[in-house]
């Protein structure tokens, strides 16, 4: 056994992991005590990394399709990349460089990013290179640049621990940045008088730590921040000396916020005046004020304005550049920061430069040894896919992102991908929605197999190291790009020495870092070897530095031309899409604790479905009652763009009038193109970040009386692919995994009438539910049929259709591997369980590490147990801690009389 220190591939906290492996297989993963981001901690996702990534779901070989109606066939790398270079060269010859585009990802490593960027801007000569960070961080980029002059989060994780007053806005960090939340929890436990304000329309697990939760009306954050500033000015709690010495534009802002009186703000935001006063007094009184924010601010048509209105509060109070203070945007993806640094949004260039700035273009062109860089502005994600659909983009390269799941307005994205003459998808997993559209599928090495660097939320650069080899012929992203680029060079510029002669990620890093020299982020002093020697480092880190920089702007000098920060005075604007009588509910979307985005990786570990098993639309009980709906019932949720059929979940943490659907469920897990078929692509005018958090929807009942439940153990990926195809023929289809040691696939379907016997026979044949070991029952007149396969007395597969009463009981028998033969005669009966037996309702796993269910914890709470006793008796919450906020909430809910 060997151990390799690397970095977690999920969120922007950027935790260090220790990978235990034998050179071929990863056995376990633990937190790296030496990594400054996590000091040994991991969350429920990081600690289960070794359970994910089922090889059967991975892309092993390049595959090429030679005609839209044909299937892809395996090719070798030489054939794949030569073909790609030929198609790109021909497209550029015929239609110009802007007829090709790249859509890449904040999950690429800095070296991957740099190679894509250099390829697009120099060799091809287009700015059509955008990344999924457009959906994620682009409003924060605009926010920082407008207020502070550069896209640089000025704080450190230690500030989270040291701050006396924290404002957490539009961030569910208990689930999305769990290890930081653990650090905050520990600091709050030590110092309970630390004030924490959470601003979120939902009562999330993050609210568990809040002294004050402002459940504002979605989209109204700008008014709230202006309202706070109004009160701070009124109460003389602003820092006039700081404003005079270090900022510009205060007068204009002061006169704008005069109008944001407590009465107006309370009405606009749907909060109480008293709460607004309380929040303002805490911010005004404190020694150190820190704000943390994420998608609740960024993913909005007012995303940039929200960012700047929040930064205004820090500038007005002088709460920036000192311990425990500052505006700290939490980055989503592990290398969203690296993408911004390498200039991998269409409007940027490497080293925090702008593509629209002629001087910046000139600097980069000189560095790259080319005459000039393209002037034509590049397309940003939403516009890019519109251009693809309109036929203006004729070759599209997608890498490390799954737009056919994660982009808003999915109908458009699927049409675009189907229309585009040549689509390259560079992916680690073949199972994603986007892979179906690949004309050329390039298998990528993934976490644990590749090397490079990533920058986390606190500007800290870590070395990502490989432990094992990639499966099949999969290759590292940078190496695919450079190999392609060398082929395209030979075709476009024969005889020229290659600009892409990179044969290791360290070489790419060394060339790239020169582009940061003299810029605000300057990390020209770093190298892979130095990071190995000193440990992960925070930028700036120039050639004369010995240690990374913990905090920016400590001297009050900002990255603007005159060194002064800029107040931004903008009014609250209306959402792009509001509710009306046809679409009276506001749809909010976001993360679950244990899933990652489109679930290509987390969706391979059955254990990670224990907390939330299937797609459900969360709705306030009053909204359910008003529609005469029951918890768990199938409903139709429709927006102006599309609709989905799925179960509804009664959720008191929602505010009436608002519904919530996790973003993870794509077309693979939920028929109908998944969550984003509902969302809109209206975007912020400056950042072009789409308003993914707010869309108008309606919820109506559906009549789908014929229901079916299927469970099949083993060979999960093969069954998934085949069953998902057949499942398309039902009106409702939800897929998921269950179990821990023995994973099984479950498929739930519903339809208006019973499907053909032939369809059911096809399903049975796929699942071997048609052999001698299968118990069967058929009543064609009533549309009921059942199949249960036993192996050594134990259930290994089952299908209940038309009548599914025994579903939960049979499932619990499967789970417990019960072989009691006396029960067999009940298997096909129309009862939920034999008399006296437990129906076996599926139970949510609250603690994933220790496998502790909701009902056990509830029973403990009923016996009067508090958190410490629950931890002691069941072990829940003692490992990664991700479930602790939920357990606390269960305890406090139980304390409130019904
Ligand atoms: N478990 C898990 N963790 C992740 C990820 C994941 O997929 N799974 N993805 C990572 C990535 S890429 C990202 S970007 C981050 C996202 O991290 P977060 O932004 O924290 O997560 P979300 O759930 O998308 O949204 C946060 C909150 O914004 C709230 N919100 C919605 N509208 C508004 C509004 O108008 N105002 C305010 N103030 N709040 C609003 C929502 O109710 C939600 O609770 O998570 C990262 N971490
Ligand atoms: N409704 C709604 N939609 C949203 C959001 C929301 O809050 N609500 N959030 C948005 C945000 S913030 C984000 S960041 C996006 C995320 O959306 P996506 O970028 O689509 O998210 P992932 O599913 O993580 O896609 C990454 C892909 O890269 C693949 N992959 C993994 N490792 C590697 C590798 O090393 N190389 C290559 N080439 N591929 C690899 C994975 O299999 C996966 O398919 O979703 C956005 N969409
Ligand atoms: S908080 Fe969890 S998901 Fe994020 S980097 Fe750390 S271990 Fe990975
Ligand atoms: Mo993100």
From TrEMBL:
<dbReference type="GO" id="GO:0016491">
    <property type="term" value="F:oxidoreductase activity"/>
</dbReference>
<keyword id="KW-0408">Iron</keyword>
<dbReference type="InterPro" id="IPR027467">
    <property type="entry name" value="MopterinOxRdtase_cofactor_BS"/>
</dbReference>
<dbReference type="InterPro" id="IPR006963">
    <property type="entry name" value="Mopterin_OxRdtase_4Fe-4S_dom"/>
</dbReference>
<keyword id="KW-0534">Nitrate assimilation</keyword>
<dbReference type="InterPro" id="IPR007419">
    <property type="entry name" value="BFD-like_2Fe2S-bd_dom"/>
</dbReference>
<dbReference type="InterPro" id="IPR041957">
    <property type="entry name" value="CT_Nitrate-R-NapA-like"/>
</dbReference>
<dbReference type="InterPro" id="IPR006657">
    <property type="entry name" value="MoPterin_dinucl-bd_dom"/>
</dbReference>
<dbReference type="GO" id="GO:0043546">
    <property type="term" value="F:molybdopterin cofactor binding"/>
</dbReference>
<dbReference type="Pfam" id="PF04324">
    <property type="entry name" value="Fer2_BFD"/>
</dbReference>
<dbReference type="InterPro" id="IPR050123">
    <property type="entry name" value="Prok_molybdopt-oxidoreductase"/>
</dbReference>
<keyword id="KW-0500">Molybdenum</keyword>
<dbReference type="InterPro" id="IPR009010">
    <property type="entry name" value="Asp_de-COase-like_dom_sf"/>
</dbReference>
<dbReference type="GO" id="GO:1990204">
    <property type="term" value="C:oxidoreductase complex"/>
</dbReference>
<dbReference type="InterPro" id="IPR006655">
    <property type="entry name" value="Mopterin_OxRdtase_prok_CS"/>
</dbReference>
<protein>
    <submittedName>
        <fullName>Nitrate reductase</fullName>
    </submittedName>
</protein>
<dbReference type="Pfam" id="PF01568">
    <property type="entry name" value="Molydop_binding"/>
</dbReference>
<comment type="similarity">
    <text>Belongs to the prokaryotic molybdopterin-containing oxidoreductase family. NasA/NapA/NarB subfamily.</text>
</comment>
<dbReference type="GO" id="GO:0042128">
    <property type="term" value="P:nitrate assimilation"/>
</dbReference>
<keyword id="KW-0004">4Fe-4S</keyword>
<dbReference type="InterPro" id="IPR006656">
    <property type="entry name" value="Mopterin_OxRdtase"/>
</dbReference>
<keyword id="KW-0411">Iron-sulfur</keyword>
<dbReference type="Pfam" id="PF00384">
    <property type="entry name" value="Molybdopterin"/>
</dbReference>
<dbReference type="GO" id="GO:0045333">
    <property type="term" value="P:cellular respiration"/>
</dbReference>
<keyword id="KW-0560">Oxidoreductase</keyword>
<dbReference type="GO" id="GO:0051539">
    <property type="term" value="F:4 iron, 4 sulfur cluster binding"/>
</dbReference>
<keyword id="KW-0479">Metal-binding</keyword>
<dbReference type="InterPro" id="IPR041854">
    <property type="entry name" value="BFD-like_2Fe2S-bd_dom_sf"/>
</dbReference>
<feature type="domain" description="4Fe-4S Mo/W bis-MGD-type">
    <location>
        <begin position="1"/>
        <end position="57"/>
    </location>
</feature>
<dbReference type="Pfam" id="PF04879">
    <property type="entry name" value="Molybdop_Fe4S4"/>
</dbReference>
<dbReference type="GO" id="GO:0046872">
    <property type="term" value="F:metal ion binding"/>
</dbReference>
<dbReference type="GO" id="GO:0016020">
    <property type="term" value="C:membrane"/>
</dbReference>
């Amino acid at each position: 056994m060997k151990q390799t220190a690397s970095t977690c591939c999920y969120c922007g906290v950027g935790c260090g992991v220790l990978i235990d492996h034998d050179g071929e297989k990863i056995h376990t993963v633990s937190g790296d005590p030496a990594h400054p981001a996590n000091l040994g901690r991991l969350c429920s996702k990081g600690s289960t990394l070794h359970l994910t990534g089922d090889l059967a779901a991975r892309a092993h070989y390049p595959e090429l399709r030679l005609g839209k109606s044909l299937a892809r066939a395996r090719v070798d790398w030489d054939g794949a990349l030569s073909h790609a270079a030929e198609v790109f060269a021909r497209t550029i010859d015929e239609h110009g460089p802007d007829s090709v585009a790249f859509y890449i990802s904040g999950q690429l490593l800095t070296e991957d990013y740099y190679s894509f960027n250099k390829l697009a801007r120099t060799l091809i000569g287009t700015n059509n290179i955008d990344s999924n960070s457009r959906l994620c961080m682009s409003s924060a980029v605009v926010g920082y640049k407008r207020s502070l002059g550069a896209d640089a989060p000025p704080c450190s994780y230690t500030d989270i621990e040291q701050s006396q007053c924290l404002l957490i806005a539009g961030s569910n960090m208990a689930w999305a940045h769990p290890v930081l939340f653990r650090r905050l929890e520990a600091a709050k436990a030590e110092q309970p008088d630390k004030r924490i304000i959470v601003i979120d329309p939902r009562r999330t697990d993050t609210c568990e730590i809040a002294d004050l939760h402002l459940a504002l009306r979605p989209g109204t954050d700008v008014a709230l921040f202006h309202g706070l500033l109004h009160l701070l000015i009124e109460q003389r709690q602003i820092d006039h000396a700081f404003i005079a010495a270090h900022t510009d534009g205060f007068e204009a802002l002061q006169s704008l916020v005069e109008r944001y009186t407590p009465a107006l703000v309370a009405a606009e935001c749907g909060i109480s005046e008293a709460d607004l006063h309380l929040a303002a007094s805490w911010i005004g009184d404190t020694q150190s004020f820190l704000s943390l924010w994420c998608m609740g601010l960024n993913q909005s048509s007012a995303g940039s304005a929200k960012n700047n209105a929040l930064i205004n509060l820090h500038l007005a109070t002088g709460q920036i550049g000192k311990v425990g203070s500052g505006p700290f945007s939490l980055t989503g993806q592990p290398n969203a920061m690296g993408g911004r640094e390498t200039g991998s949004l269409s409007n940027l260039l490497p080293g925090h430069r702008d593509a629209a700035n002629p001087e910046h273009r000139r600097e980069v062109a000189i560095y790259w040894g080319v005459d000039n860089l393209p002037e034509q502005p590049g397309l940003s994600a939403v516009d890019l896919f519109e251009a693809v659909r309109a036929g203006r983009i004729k070759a599209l390269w997608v890498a490390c992102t799954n737009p056919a799941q994660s982009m808003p307005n999915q109908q458009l994205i699927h049409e675009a991908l189907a229309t585009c003459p040549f689509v390259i998808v560079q992916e680690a997993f073949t199972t994603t929605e986007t892979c179906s559209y690949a004309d050329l599928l390039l298998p990528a090495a993934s976490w644990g197999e590749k090397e490079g660097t990533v920058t986390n939320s606190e500007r800290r650069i870590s070395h990502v190291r490989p432990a094992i080899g990639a499966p099949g012929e999969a290759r590292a992203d940078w190496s695919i790009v450079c190999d392609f680029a060398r082929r395209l060079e030979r075709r476009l510029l024969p005889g020229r020495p290659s600009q892409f002669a990179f044969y290791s990620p360290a070489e790419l890093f060394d060339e790239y870092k020169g582009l940061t020299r003299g810029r605000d982020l300057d990390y020209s002093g770093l190298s892979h070897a130095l990071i190995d020697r000193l440990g992960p480092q925070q930028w700036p880190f120039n050639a004369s530095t010995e240690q990374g920089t913990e905090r920016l702007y400590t001297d009050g000098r900002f990255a603007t031309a005159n060194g002064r920060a800029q107040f931004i005075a903008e009014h609250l604007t209306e959402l792009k899409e509001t509710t009306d009588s046809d679409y009276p509910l506001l749809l909010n979307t976001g993360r679950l604790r244990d899933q990652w985005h489109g679930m290509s990786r987390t969706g391979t570990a059955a254990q990670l479905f224990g907390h939330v098993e299937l797609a459900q639309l969360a709705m306030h009980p009053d909204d359910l009652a008003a529609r005469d709906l029951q918890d768990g019932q199938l409903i139709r949720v429709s927006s102006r763009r599309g609709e989905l059929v799925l179960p509804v979940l009664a959720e008191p943490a929602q505010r009436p009038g608002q519904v919530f659907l996790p973003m993870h469920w794509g077309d693979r897990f939920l028929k109908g193109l998944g969550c984003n078929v509902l969302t809109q692509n209206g975007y912020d005018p400056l950042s072009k970040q789409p308003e993914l958090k707010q869309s108008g929807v309606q919820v109506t009942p559906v009549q789908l009386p014929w229901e079916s439940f299927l469970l099949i153990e083993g060979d999960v990926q093969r069954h998934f692919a085949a069953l998902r195809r057949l499942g398309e023929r039902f009106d409702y289809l939800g897929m998921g995994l269950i179990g821990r040691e023995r994973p099984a696939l479950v498929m739930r379907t519903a339809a208006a009438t019973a499907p053909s016997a032939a369809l059911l026979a096809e399903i049975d044949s796929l699942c071997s539910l048609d052999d001698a070991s299968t118990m069967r029952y058929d009543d064609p007149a009533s549309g009921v049929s059942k199949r249960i396969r036993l192996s050594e007395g134990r259930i290994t597969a089952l299908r209940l259709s038309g009548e599914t009463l025994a579903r939960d009981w049979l499932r619990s028998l499967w789970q417990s591997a019960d072989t009691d033969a006396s029960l067999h005669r009940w298997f096909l009966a129309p009862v939920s369980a034999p008399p006296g037996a437990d129906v076996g309702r599926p139970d949510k796993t609250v603690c994933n590490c220790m496998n502790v269910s909701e009902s056990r914890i509830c029973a403990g709470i009923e016996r009067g147990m508090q958190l410490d006793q629950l931890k002691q008796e069941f072990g829940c919450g003692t490992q990664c801690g991700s479930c602790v906020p939920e357990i606390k909430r269960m305890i406090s809910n139980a304390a409130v009389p019904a």
